[in-house]
């Protein structure tokens, strides 16, 4: 089964759960006076659930015949192994680490580390350029956001 | 209209707003030039900055400047590198890149700049004429018509997604609408679909979603497949002049394409990409025999046509945004989200309630086009150096800016995890060839769609409003036809194809 149909299947499952919530569990919480309204909080979600389930079924069952396109796809998931998958995943991991470290480690350190590790992952080895660039960029962004735009960012780790 | 123009001139010519236009155009050009980063990502990254400015006119002027700059920068990279950063400038590379190969890069850039300038300015003039007319009509609309109009807009976007992709685009739109129902709505004081999570109480953040849908997958694709981003060497660009004869040759092309491009841009879902391809095709068909031979080998007409058309279409796409409050493209959807965040509701009342915003935007379009022509064009040889920034530095910085953008919007580190999660989902969707812009448009329109739907339901005490208001019914019929007809035609085309061609 092609990837787009797998995706449709996943969306179908999500839509079923969403529809179950809309049809069976949401209205239980509704106060009686609101039940006399022509529209309930669950009305619109019910409509959406039905339409989403129908559309994802159309894709899943291949009812819409697609005209074979001769344009070369931008990137082909079937050749995923040929691409730099490891690098992409490492970068995503770094982003998660950044999200978790931002508060405890402080903005300056977390950003500096993220930029350095990110460039390193992509193959940068000239540390005499990389380290100053990352340090200066972290400081400039912190200065712009905290001092100029006035949004608080804790610069240093929690123990300082 | 004169009165409005004066208000706009007064607002746009403040020092702050002039700086906004110039800064926006420069930033847009810089980032738009980087292959793989479209105007949507750039605007998404710029939104937190624009929102913290606080003044809605200044913010939208900045974002509009970024938009123009990004389109201009996109054409620069497609001319110099044959690597369009934006789908709307793909057609510019057909003739622009051959010109650059022949050593006429400077001339090609000048033609692109002049064509963009003319397209944008004529577009702004048409916008000035048509937007007030349309908003007068739109004032007669009730919530029932608004509901129907939004449905038409959403289905038009799906319908323009291309043959064989209509169901996917519809599904993405629906997914966007579904995501918009998460959180506490304005009409009902109860949280919906939050699964008990406090972080979802106010729903998904639109900035996070915009970053996750556009900037993040584009950056990841650059990592996955480095061949996709052609690396420039910052080659020499000189001789920016064009001759008088060449000017005379492209003048009628520019005139025709500004008007055609503008009206294509007004249609929801069509936008700059379709306008530029159509403009190229039309000009090629009506050119004389020997000129037709030239197309694709560096014809100046073939460069002027798409460039004019895409800029005129960008301006045209502001018409539904400013008059109806309904975005027709991903980019204007992001602008709409930014406006709502600034407490401005675009729609027919905008011209009456806050004329200074409306007219300042229009005046700043002229200024923006002028800035691109007189400031950016001479600077292009230097700006083009940005193409030589190594990817090793570029990509971590793009990722960092997406993180920063969604963090400073919410000041919440959980938001960053949501960003990464949705970014992964968006990348998978992109792999599976699902269009992402409809999802974002659905998400942004979702709240308004439901509000208008609920209001009509309450007014008419049930679903009856569809049948009692002929215009609502008519619009809904159009919406259904828009979705059904292309897929029906695709089936027929497929059947015909199977009859003649060999199977695969």
UniProtKB/TrEMBL annotation, chain A:
Keywords: Membrane, Transmembrane, Transmembrane helix. Pfam families: TctB. The chain crosses the membrane at residues 45-63, 84-101, 107-123, 130-153. InterPro entries: DUF1468. Residues 7-153 form the DUF1468 domain. The keyword Ribosomal protein does not apply. This is Tripartite tricarboxylate transporter TctB family protein. It comes from Ruegeria denitrificans.
UniProtKB/TrEMBL annotation, chain B:
It holds the Pfam family TctA. This is Tripartite tricarboxylate transporter TctA family protein. PANTHER family: TRICARBOXYLIC TRANSPORT PROTEIN (PTHR35342). It comes from the Bacteria. It comes from Ruegeria denitrificans. Keywords: Membrane, Transmembrane, Transmembrane helix. The keyword Transmembrane helix applies. InterPro entries: DUF112_TM. The lineage of its organism: Bacteria, Pseudomonadati, Pseudomonadota, Alphaproteobacteria, Rhodobacterales.
């Amino acid at each position: 089964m092609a990837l787009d149909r797998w995706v449709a299947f996943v969306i179908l499952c999500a839509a079923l759960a969403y529809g179950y919530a809309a049809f069976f569990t949401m209205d239980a919480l509704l106060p009686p006076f609101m039940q006399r309204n022509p529209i309930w909080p669950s009305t619109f979600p019910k409509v959406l659930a039905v339409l989403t389930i129908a559309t994802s079924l159309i894709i899943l069952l291949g009812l819409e015949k697609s005209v074979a396109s001769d344009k070369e796809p931008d990137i082909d998931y079937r050749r995923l192994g040929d691409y730099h998958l490891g690098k992409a995943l490492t970068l995503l991991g770094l982003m998660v680490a950044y999200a978790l470290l931002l508060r405890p480690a402080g903005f300056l350190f977390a950003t500096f580390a993220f930029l350095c590790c990110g460039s390193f992952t992509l193959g940068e080895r000239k540390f005499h350029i990389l380290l100053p660039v990352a340090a200066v960029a972290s400081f400039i962004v912190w200065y712009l956001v905290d001092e100029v735009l006035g949004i608080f960012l804790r610069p240093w780790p929690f123990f300082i | 209209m004169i009165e409005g123009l004066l208000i706009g001139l007064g607002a746009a010519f403040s020092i702050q707003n002039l700086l906004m236009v110039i800064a926006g155009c420069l930033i847009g050009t810089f980032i738009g030039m980087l292959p793989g980063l479209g105007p949507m990502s750039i605007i998404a990254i710029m939104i937190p900055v624009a929102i913290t400015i606080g003044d809605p006119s200044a913010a939208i002027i900045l974002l509009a400047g970024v938009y123009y700059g990004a389109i201009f920068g996109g054409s620069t990279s497609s001319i110099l590198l044959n690597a369009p950063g934006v789908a709307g400038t793909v057609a510019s590379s057909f003739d622009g890149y051959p010109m650059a190969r022949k050593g006429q890069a400077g001339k090609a850039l000048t033609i692109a700049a002049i064509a963009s300038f003319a397209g944008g300015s004529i577009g702004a003039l048409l916008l000035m004429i048509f937007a007030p007319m349309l908003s007068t009509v739109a004032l007669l609309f009730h919530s029932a018509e608004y509901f129907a109009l939004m449905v038409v807009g959403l289905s038009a976007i799906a319908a323009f997604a291309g043959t064989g992709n209509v169901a996917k685009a519809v599904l993405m739109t629906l997914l966007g609408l579904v995501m918009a129902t998460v959180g506490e709505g304005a009409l009902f004081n109860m949280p919906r679909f939050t699964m008990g999570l406090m972080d979802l109480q106010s729903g998904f953040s639109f900035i996070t979603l915009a970053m996750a849908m556009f900037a993040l997958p584009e950056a990841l694709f650059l990592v996955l497949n480095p061949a996709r981003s052609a690396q420039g060497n910052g080659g020499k660009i000189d001789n920016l002049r064009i001759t008088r004869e060449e000017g005379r040759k492209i003048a009628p092309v520019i005139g025709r394409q500004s008007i055609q491009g503008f009206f294509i841009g007004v249609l929801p879902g069509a936008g700059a990409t379709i306008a530029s391809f159509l403009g190229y095709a039309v000009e090629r068909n009506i050119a004389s025999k020997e000129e037709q031979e030239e197309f694709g080998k560096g014809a100046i007409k073939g460069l002027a046509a798409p460039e004019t058309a895409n800029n005129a279409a960008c301006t045209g796409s502001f018409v539904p945004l400013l008059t109806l409050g309904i975005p027709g493209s991903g980019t204007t959807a992001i602008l709409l989200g930014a406006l709502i965040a600034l407490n401005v509701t675009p729609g027919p009342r905008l011209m009456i309630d806050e004329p200074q915003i409306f007219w300042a935007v229009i005046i700043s379009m002229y200024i923006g086009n002028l800035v691109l022509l007189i400031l950016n064009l001479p600077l292009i040889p230097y700006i083009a150096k940005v193409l030589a920034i190594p990817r090793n530095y570029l990509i971590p910085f793009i990722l960092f800016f997406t993180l920063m953008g969604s963090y400073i919007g919410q000041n919440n580190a959980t938001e960053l995890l949501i960003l990464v999660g949705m970014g992964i989902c968006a990348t998978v969707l992109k792999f599976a060839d699902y269009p992402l812009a409809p999802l974002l448009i659905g998400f942004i329109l979702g709240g308004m769609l439901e509000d208008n739907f609920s209001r009509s339901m309450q007014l008419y005490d049930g679903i009856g409003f569809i049948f009692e208001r002929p215009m609502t019914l008519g619009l809904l019929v159009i919406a259904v036809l828009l979705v059904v007809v292309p897929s029906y035609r695709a089936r027929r085309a497929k059947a015909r194809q199977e009859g003649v061609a060999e199977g695969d």
